[in-house]
Amino acid sequence: MTEILSFNNVSFSYTPDNPELRNAVQDVSFSINEGEWIAIVGHNGSGKSTMVKLVCGLLFPQDGEVRVMRNVLTEENLWEVRSNIGMVFQNPDNQFVGATVQDDVAFALENSGVPYTEMVDRVHSSLAQVKMDKFLNHEPHHLSGGQKQRVAIAGALAMRPKLLILDEATSMLDPQGRDEVLKTVRALREEIGLTVLSITHDVEEALFADRVLFMNNGQKYAEGTPSEIFSLGDKLVEFGLELPFAMRMTKLFKDNGVLLEGQHMSEEELVNDLWTSNFNK
Amino acid sequence: MDIKLQQVSYAYSKGTPFEKYALFNVDLTIPHGTYQAIIGHTGSGKSTILQHFNGLLKPSEGQVHIGERVIVAGKKAKELKPVRQKVGIVFQFPEHQLFEETVLKDIMFGPMNFGVSEQVAEARARELIKLVGLPEDILNKSPFDLSGGQMRRVAIAGVLAMDPEVIVLDEPTAGLDPRGQKEIMDMFYNLHKERGLTTILVTHSMEDAARYADQIAIMHEGRCVLNGTPHEIFSDSDTLEKYRLELPHIVRFQRKIEQLMKKPLSKICLTEEELAAEVAHALREGRDAK
Amino acid sequence: MMEKMIFGRYIPGESFVHRLDPRSKLIFVFAFILVVFLANNIVTYALLLAFTLLVILMSRIRLYFLINGLKPIIILLVFTFFIHILFTREGDILLDLGFLKVYEEGLRQGIFISVRFLVLVFMTSILTLTTSPISITDGIEVLLNPLKKIKLPVHELALMMSIALRFIPTLMDETDKIMKAQMARGSDLSAGPLKERIKAVVPLLVPLFVSAFKRAEDLATAMEVRGYRGGEGRTRYRQLKWDWRDTLCLVVFVIMTALLVFYRN
Ligand SMILES: Nc1ncnc2c1ncn2[C@@H]1O[C@H](COP(=O)(O)OP(=O)(O)OP(=O)(O)O)[C@@H](O)[C@H]1O
Ligand SMILES: Nc1ncnc2c1ncn2[C@@H]1O[C@H](COP(=O)(O)OP(=O)(O)OP(=O)(O)O)[C@@H](O)[C@H]1O
Ligand SMILES: [Mg+2]
Ligand SMILES: [Mg+2]
């Protein structure tokens, strides 16, 4: 297993001169291996975006170290690191640099000096991967939010990144747009085994991840598989999140005296349990 | 105060090569005291329609009744201020409208534009800041020093401070974490219940529409194609699909359970609590029958 | 009013003129602006006018639309025409209304100046109507490339311009949204004494600046993580292609200039 990214006791404060204010990120450690999908969940202001900025060298930690592909991130290897990481941010409008879809996808390629013919290939193939190849010449203000985010993903893919980071990439989208983007990410995981770090406060989205980091006030409160994290139950609610639908229903069923065996993360499981505990006797 | 749209059509950039119709012959009546949701696929005209509710847009054809006032296509509409005071709109990402030096001044901006005295405006600000769930000492801070969620609440307080009879909400919780979303939706619901505020909610969330609304209107390609109670709207999944909308999560789940039980429950449940109780009830009946 | 203005707008199309390389169009228009001043008699002005009409025809932009869209400018043109009629007192008197005398030279000057103005406006409008802003930027960047030698930041300027162009619609939407949000809170931008109106602009400008800064910050971040660090070592995705149309266009231009020189007094 190749390690792609790790945080070792990282702390960061936007206001180091004012020790009264808590650090935006406090003593966080975790690592991501190749091919994994990690989700970071946490309330507004829990430090998620700050962690992303630490990964791509927009900020440097005051304590601890960030390693990307096993190398400590420094001012020197910054640009090389960035060429291995694809990023999609929250606001679909503010990250669209090019005048048209294809220009935007080509932007990172131009920056790293990829020759013209190869650029054309990569632009077309990565737009095909996100199913936006019919929109080559469209301008951003004629695209929906979901389409803009898919273009942003294509722009990242064109660089053949080792790691794709989505910082609340779906939170400004309508349900259809959100579905489009999530389907795209899941398909990419299946097709090319892309490593993904996604940040979200949508718990249903986090259910798809292999592992979940649960942030609270700048600290890592817990880390584990989705079922481990969501079995924390009311702690999640206390820290600003909610439980997945199936878990809420399980609890309500039990409160109402419906027979059920265990805790359930997914609707499938819950329905099966309802069946075996109540009808199949 | 009732709001009534009669045969309203609206075109952006009318009379130019870029003319684009966004509404076609919309008829919609929202009686006083209703909680009305408006749902629809993106670009279906929801934001366009809501700007007719206080005369920000004037119909290209048809007429809009806002209480006593009538805005008729083609006629000059003068003095819309009284209408704007009675119908408050919380736009999408309302925190973008903050501009004053302090939170207090920003909340007072609306009422003072409508001629409310400084004392009264300040008293309202102090009352509302608590209502939206913020501590009172925030009033003296600059709105730009607040977190996103706090700014959202301040902006909402600024609209409520106008003391409107109707409140129009365009996606009021987009981008907030789940707790923030729930707190804000519950706050509006309580206002609706306690003060009888007519509430119009534009949303992409079928769950919110199902949970809070008395009436749901569906917009599709600039037309208002359906208006009914949540039970009516969500009992027909084929129609919804035609308008590219989904059933609320809870109703989809009910369908699954009904398949399992091989018979429908006695009603469509719109909240999780309701469904749990209903399933428990059905199971008990089933057992008793045996 | 503004919605009807077409000066500076782009109308997509597939005509001969649309398909020209932006470089040849830019060279052509700039050279044309200079050459216009060669004309000084009926033949040469007629030549310019005929040539302009030919270009309009080939661009397949409806003349009605062009004139309608350029109305404010045409009003200006009529105005200059009458100024000349009224204030030039040379040559024979053509019309004597007692209080107003129209002289031959006045009429001549009025017509010439108007035609000159008209062809200039039409030609530059055709440039912007048939070339997307981004292509114009590309064209300018490539044409100015030699100036890099004297340390003019050509690439940066071009990028700035293309980003500005890309964000114009976004910022227009934003302005509209904020204006409506403040109007909904009772602020009134269109009525009252001037002092009040100036005060009413603050609630519009502050949020607009805040959001523009936020966007700029986000955009800078997005560009940086996508590896942007200036023009050095960059390749270009947008390629410009010079083909026979462009050469033809310039040849025609040279011929026209020769004719102008030949027929002028
Ligand atoms: N540029 C900045 N200057 C000062 N403080 C900042 C800055 N950016 C963020 N913070 C603070 O750092 C903390 C963590 O913010 P961060 O943006 O990382 O949170 P987040 O988890 O991404 O929240 P959200 O869900 O709202 O995006 C917050 O308390 C925030 O107020
Ligand atoms: N200022 C404008 N000029 C021209 N067309 C516009 C303008 N604003 C909206 N439209 C068009 O009008 C139609 C309806 O837009 P509207 O914003 O009302 O949709 P919506 O239902 O609110 O969508 P969303 O769910 O994405 O907010 C769309 O096709 C849109 O492109
Ligand atoms: Mg964030
Ligand atoms: Mg809208």
From TrEMBL, chain A:
Entry keywords, A to Z: ATP-binding, Cell membrane, Membrane, Nucleotide-binding, Translocase, Transport
The domain of life is Bacteria
Protein's name in the database: Energy-coupling factor transport system ATP-binding protein
GO molecular function terms here? ATP binding; ATP hydrolysis activity; ATPase-coupled transmembrane transporter activity; cobalt ion transmembrane transporter activity
The answer to whether UniProt assigns keyword Cell membrane to this entry is yes
Q: Name one Pfam family in it.
A: ABC_tran
Q: Which GO cellular component terms, listed alphabetically, does the Swiss-Prot or TrEMBL entry include?
A: ATP-binding cassette (ABC) transporter complex
SMART domains given for it? Answer: AAA (SM00382)
Task: Write out the similarity annotation.
Answer: Belongs to the ABC transporter superfamily.
Q: What is the lineage of its organism?
A: Bacteria, Bacillati, Bacillota, Bacilli, Bacillales
User: PANTHER family from the xrefs?
Assistant: ENERGY-COUPLING FACTOR TRANSPORTER ATP-BINDING PROTEIN ECFA1 (PTHR43553:SF24), HEAVY METAL TRANSPORTER (PTHR43553)
Give residue ranges for domain ABC transporter: 5-242
Q: Which Gene3D superfamilies match?
A: P-loop containing nucleotide triphosphate hydrolases
Extract the PROSITE patterns matched here: ABC_TRANSPORTER_1, ABC_TRANSPORTER_2
Q: What is its main location?
A: membrane
Subcellular localization is given as: Cell membrane
Instruction: Tell me how this protein sits in the membrane.
Output: Peripheral membrane protein
Automatic annotation (TrEMBL), chain B:
For this protein, what is the EC number? 7.-.-.-
Q: Name one GO molecular function term.
A: ATP hydrolysis activity
Q: Which domain of life is it from?
A: Bacteria
Say if the entry is tagged with keyword Amino-acid biosynthesis: no
Q: Which residues form the ABC transporter domain?
A: 3-246
**Topology versus the membrane:** Peripheral membrane protein
What Pfam family does this protein match (any one)?
ABC_tran
Q: What is its main location?
A: membrane
Signal peptide coordinates: none
Spell out the subcellular localization from the entry.
Cell membrane
Q: Is Protein biosynthesis included in the keywords of this UniProt record?
A: no
Q: Print the keywords alphabetically.
A: ATP-binding, Cell membrane, Membrane, Nucleotide-binding, Translocase, Transport
Which is one Gene Ontology cellular component term of this protein? ATP-binding cassette (ABC) transporter complex
Quaternary organization: Forms a stable energy-coupling factor (ECF) transporter complex composed of 2 membrane-embedded substrate-binding proteins (S component), 2 ATP-binding proteins (A component) and 2 transmembrane proteins (T component).
Entries under PANTHER family matching the protein: ENERGY-COUPLING FACTOR TRANSPORTER ATP-BINDING PROTEIN ECFA2 (PTHR43553:SF27), HEAVY METAL TRANSPORTER (PTHR43553)
Q: What does the protein in this record do? A: ATP-binding (A) component of a common energy-coupling factor (ECF) ABC-transporter complex.
Q: Which family does it belong to?
A: Belongs to the ABC transporter superfamily. Energy-coupling factor EcfA family.
Protein name, UniProt field:
Energy-coupling factor transporter ATP-binding protein EcfA2
What organism is this sequence from?
A: Ureibacillus chungkukjangi
Question: Taxonomic classification, please?
Answer: Bacteria, Bacillati, Bacillota, Bacilli, Bacillales
UniProtKB/TrEMBL annotation, chain C:
State the name under which the record lists this protein. Energy-coupling factor transporter transmembrane protein EcfT
Q: Which GO terms describe its molecular function?
A: transmembrane transporter activity
Q: How does it assemble?
A: Forms a stable energy-coupling factor (ECF) transporter complex composed of 2 membrane-embedded substrate-binding proteins (S component), 2 ATP-binding proteins (A component) and 2 transmembrane proteins (T component).
The record, for CDD domains, names: EcfT (cd16914)
Q: How does it sit in the membrane?
A: Multi-pass membrane protein
Annotated localization: Cell membrane
Looking at the UniProt record for this protein, which Gene Ontology cellular component terms does it annotate, in alphabetical order? Answer: plasma membrane
Q: Which organism is it from?
A: Ureibacillus chungkukjangi
**What residues form the membrane-spanning segments?**
26-56, 63-87, 107-129, 244-263
Transmembrane is among the record's keywords = yes
Return the similarity comment: Belongs to the energy-coupling factor EcfT family.
Function, in words = Transmembrane (T) component of an energy-coupling factor (ECF) ABC-transporter complex. Unlike classic ABC transporters this ECF transporter provides the energy necessary to transport a number of different substrates.
Which PANTHER family does the annotation name?
SLL0384 PROTEIN
* Key words of the record: Cell membrane, Membrane, Transmembrane, Transmembrane helix, Transport
State where it is primarily located.
Answer: membrane
HAMAP family named among the record's database cross-references:
EcfT (MF_01461)
Disulfide bond as a keyword? no
